[in-house]
Design brief:
Xyl_isomerase-like_TIM-brl, IolE/XylAMocC-like, Xyl_isomerase-like_sf, globular, single chain, isomerase, Xylose isomerase, TIM Barrel, alpha/beta
């Protein structure tokens, strides 16, 4: 398993400075923000080559409108995700993290035919199949992320995201496991990771209080052991707060994570 951090968590006036800091601290990858990424692709590629740090995936930077009621919004969302999937290929990243929707349903409840959530699931499968097919042309993946109940009503647990992947049935889709969200939603983090093993392709790290691992009470040891058991060898990227001196905090957290991984 390889450790990374989102670029916005690392101090530095430029992207080059950020990845140089990550390299010195012992991280191997950087998770890219999708915002305005198209405008800085050459800067990113040059800094990655120079530092030896790898791009892991792209997070955010598109319209979260896949399940909006207006077709134009959905088409705009898909177009933006496709653009980022192509950029991911260009910079050597694995793919794009996709959250289907934040908050509650926006499409109408058509009971007794179908509820809003049933309609959302059908609509989501159709659109993810299209996006996964495009990702296949780029050699990248759609990375589906479940969130906790306070951020979305849809896809709160790994098993729910895995079910969507089963229905799409594409090798260009995978599931993201986020330790912060799992700490809220999963009865047993280690068991949920093992059960989702077939589809698991990316990991976000944050402690119970949504700061760096080691400053809360999440049991990373058992979670990391489960990842080893299923043969997971991919990226684990920080998505969390970094209190205090960010470089010192990132260094301490990496040491803590490596200790938990080897325990």
């Amino acid at each position: 398993m390889k450790f990374a951090a989102q670029e916005n968590l690392v101090p530095g006036a430029t992207f080059r400075e950020k990845v140089q800091h990550l390299k010195r601290l012992g991280y191997e990858g950087v998770e890219l923000r999708g915002d305005h990424l198209a405008e800085r692709v050459q800067e990113v590629k040059a800094a990655l080559r120079e530092s030896g740090i790898a791009a892991t995936c792209i997070c955010g930077g598109f319209k979260f409108g896949l399940l909006f009621p207006n077709k134009a919004d959905r088409e705009e969302s898909k177009a933006q995700i496709k653009q980022l999937l192509a950029i991911a290929a260009d910079v050597g990243a694995e793919g794009v993290i996709v959250v289907p929707i934040f908050g509650g349903p926006q499409i109408p409840d058509l009971s007794p035919w179908k509820t809003a959530v049933e309609l959302e699931r059908e609509l989501l499968v159709e659109q993810l199949a299209e996006l996964a097919a495009y990702a296949g042309t780029q050699g990248t993946k759609v990375i589906l992320e479940p969130l906790n109940r306070y951020e979305t009503h849809l896809l709160n647990r790994l098993e729910q995201a895995a079910e969507i992947c089963d229905r799409v049935g594409s090798p260009h889709m995978t599931v993201l496991a986020d330790f912060f969200h799992m700490n809220i939603e999963e009865a047993d983090i280690a068991a949920s990771l093992r059960a989702a093993g077939r589809w698991l392709g990316y990991v976000h790290l944050a402690d119970s209080n949504r700061v760096v691992p080691g400053l809360g009470h999440t049991d990373f040891k058992s979670g990391f052991a489960a990842l080893r058991d299923i043969g997971y060898a991919g990226w684990m990227s920080l998505e969390c707060g970094v209190p205090g001196d960010p470089l010192a905090t990132l260094a301490r957290s990496l040491a803590f994570m490596k200790e938990q991984l080897s325990a």
